[in-house]
Amino acid sequence: MSLKLKISGVIAVLAITAILFASCRTAAKNTGAGPESQNSAASVLVPGPNDSRIAYMTALYLQNYHYLQEPLDETISARFFDQYIQMLDPRRENFLQSDMDEFAEYRTNLGNYMLGGHGRADLTPAYAIYDRYKQRLVEHTAYDDDLLKQDQFNFDTDERVMIDRRQAPWPKDLAEAQNLWRQELDLDFLQERISREISSTNASEILPLPKNADAEIADKLSHHYDWVMRMTTNWDSDNILQIYLDALAHAYDPHSDYLNNENAQSFSINMGLSLTGIGAQLKEDEGYCTVDSLVAGGPAKLSGQIHAGDRIIAVAQSNQAPVNVVDMDLPKVVEMIRGPKGMQVRLTVTSSDEPTVRRLVVLTRDEIKLEDEHAKAQLIETADGHGGTNRIGIIDLPSFYASMDSGDSADPSSASYTTVDVKKLIRKLKEENVAGIIVDLRNNPGGSLEEAVSFTGLFIKGGPVVLARDPDGQVSVYSDNDPSQLYSGPLVVLIDRLSASASEIATAALQDYGRAVVVGDISTFGKGTVQDLQSLRPVVYPATPTATNDPGIVKITIRKFYRVTGASTQFKGVIPDIVLPDVLNYSTEIGETNLDNPLPWDTISSVAFDKLDMVDPYLTQLRTNSDARVATNQDFLQVQQDINEFQTLQADKTTTLNEKQALEERQKIAEHNYARDAARALWPVPNEKRYEITLEEIETNGPMVLEPLTFTNVDAQLISTNDNGTVMAMNTNQDMIVGTKINSGANPSKATVINPAGTDPMLEETERILEDYISLSGHHSLIAQ
Questions:
Q1: Are 336 and 315 in contact (CB under 8 A)?
Q2: Above 90 in pLDDT, residue 749?
Q3: Could you confirm whether 512 is annotated as catalytic?
Q4: Which one of the listed residues 527, 555, 560, 653 is annotated catalytic?
Q5: Could you give the CA distance from residue 711 to residue 565 in angstroms, rounded to a whole number?
Q6: Closest CA to 313 of 292, 303, 302, 328
Q7: What percent of the chain has pLDDT over 70?
Q8: Which of 134, 274, 482, 543 is the most buried (most CB within 10 A)?
């Protein structure tokens, strides 16, 4: 991951709530609904026939089975209320203080509404609060539309707008709310103007605005606000129930959830890395279900009739009538397109370049493997300084996946399991005589507990891996019972702040056993809890013949994880043996400590395990060597600059509404990036060969022949070059390219270059740490195993 991408990603974490929810303005009737008016004629939307039973059983499950063993009392009710309000209005810009005062009696009494009936919850609060939310959003959108019509935008003041309002007080009245709405609209308008003023080929060049620019911006924003308003107005009882019960689950802890049928399907897909559908990545674009990309080998790609950018406007199952899906929630459209393998789905599609021309595409659903999320490996070969070469392997593991299908419909040949795949990669790396292996668990959110345990067993000769404590204090030990050890050579595990759950279990065990050097951010995420899935179908019966909605499942935290040493991975995470500089180390938004209602860290008794002595003897020297490299490494010097900029940005939760200042800030950033990339262009290209190893290649018949990774040839605008042929260029997407010059053709200002992968200083330093570890431990070549 490049430095610019990483810092941009972290900055996005800070702003994502503001960006996503600031535009969630919706249209609705001015119902005036208060706490007692939910069932009035003014409130059109009412719960589905099964909803009150679903809500009751969800509350009952959470109260009785959650690790906290806490009743849905006033304390949990208050958290429940706050979570629901936050999910609806995270920026605290639509609800007024008077609304909060009016709903105050709900705040500590939601437990009575949920469990006070005879097997059915009273959902009055959910709908009353949502009705008021719609009312305020209508007022918000109408106010914005009025300002856009007035066209009185002035961006020469020193006014600043607060971006992060999550802890801000509620607007005391409508006038104060309107001032917030005006500031937000000004910011949206200013950002649109700046995007037109910044040159698409040179980010430091400012262009004059066309005469009609403001009119176009006003029309674009008005259209967008109205679309978002329609989308939220179109919410049905399923949408409200999903958010309301998810808020209830999060009142107990951040990892308990209510999953309706659509979200339950997505959860299963993410765990198993496969689905049955057409093989298209879809996104929502102004009310249209739009094709973002196609999965190689999927029905959509093989048909040749669907392309990225196409809009799906109607969906039909087999020979049934088509259903218009314009302005329909994307998850509902996706659910209609997915279905049983071998069944047909008919799509009515329009092209982005010919929106008025409709065409019918008939596809047969098939099993789609999400190959990008499977484990993969690289072989890195460098000169050893003595005429020979060093070889190390890297296993990239995005998650701990495991197929969740069962029963007669399951296809064993399509099952995916982390340990099975990693075994294949390790065996291949051993065949290639690697002297050490890095397991990259960065951005790994976890997954299957069983897979984490069996994965750890690949590197140890059996023994306990993780402990799990029940609410009653009973402790279960999850062990690897296989005495064999697939790989016993030098091992390094690379983690970051986004490594969570199952990845923390494996990392902690390998660290506690002394089996691996752990390298990375100051800690992992800190998600050390176990969730259980409780289906609501057995306890929720159709209330009427028309009640066909699937009740979904409740994901409940039922245990806490502990390391074999007895310390919990919850809250604190895993602290690495060697910490490397990274922007994520300074984020106040990432990690369990920054979530609402996390369970605390604690300890229990340790268990007996055979600790190895493979890391401690070398750790002091490994840290000394790494610190020396990092102190002078040009990449990490730039990382430190990024850290300084990020800390400044994180501390200031406001942004300017002055156009001149905003443009100067953009120019400053562009010039800084240009200077950085110009300096990088003079750095030598790494003297190494990298080979990619995929499961697909391993599973093909015949011997596998490794080929060096080849980088894309890019025809780009030449910026600079040095004597050894290293060049810096910029492509049409303004991506800075550092690589080796191939030719310049007829145009001396252009060059075709080999575009290497983006710099990843953390991984590169981890490679150096592994090489040191290999040298210090005497494993100059792979030990026969």
A1: yes
A2: no
A3: yes
A4: 527
A5: 45
A6: 328
A7: 82
A8: 134
Catalytic residue, chosen from 512, 582, 642, 772, is 512
Q: At what angle do helices 237-252 and 74-88 cross, to 10 degrees?
A: 130
HEC profile of 726-742:
EEEEECCCCCEEEEEEE
Residue whose token pair is 């983690």? 495
Tokens of 774: 């290999």
In sequence order, what are the beta bridge partners of 440?
Answer: 396, 494
Among residues 501, 503, 568, 626, which one is catalytic? 501
Q: Is the pTM of this model over 0.85?
A: no
Residues 6 or more apart in contact with residue 771 via CB below 8 angstroms: 382, 390, 392, 436
User: Which own/partner contact pairs does 480-486 have at CB distance under 8 Å and 24+ positions apart?
Assistant: 480/453, 480/454, 480/456, 481/457, 482/454, 482/457, 485/458, 485/459, 485/460, 485/461, 485/785, 486/423, 486/426, 486/427, 486/458, 486/459, 486/785
pLDDT tens digit string along 373-415? 899 999 999 887 777 888 999 999 999 998 765 433 445 455 7
Q: Distance between CA atoms of 105 and 108, rounded to whole angstroms?
A: 7
Measure the CA–CA gap between 607 and 477, rounded to whole angstroms: 9
% helix, strand, coil for the chain, step of 5:
40, 20, 40
Helix orientation angle between 3-22 and 634-651, rounded to the nearest 10 degrees: 20
Residue 123: helix, strand or coil by DSSP?
A: coil
The answer to whether residue 501 is catalytic is yes
Phi, psi of 376 (to 5 degrees): -150, 170
In the DSSP assignment, the letter for residue 679 is H
Structure tokens at 102: 């009016």
DSSP state of 543: S
**Residue 193 pLDDT:** 94
Asked if residue 463 lies in contact with residue 609, where contact means CB atoms within 8 angstroms, the answer is: yes
CA pair distance 525, 417, nearest whole angstrom? 23
How far is residue 256's CA from residue 62's CA, in Å, rounded to a whole number?
9
Q: How far is it, in rounded angstroms, from Cα 473 to Cα 559? A: 10
Element (H, E) at 275: strand 274-277
HSE, CB side, 13 Å, CA atoms: give it for residue 488: 10
Joined tokens for residue 159: 């006014």
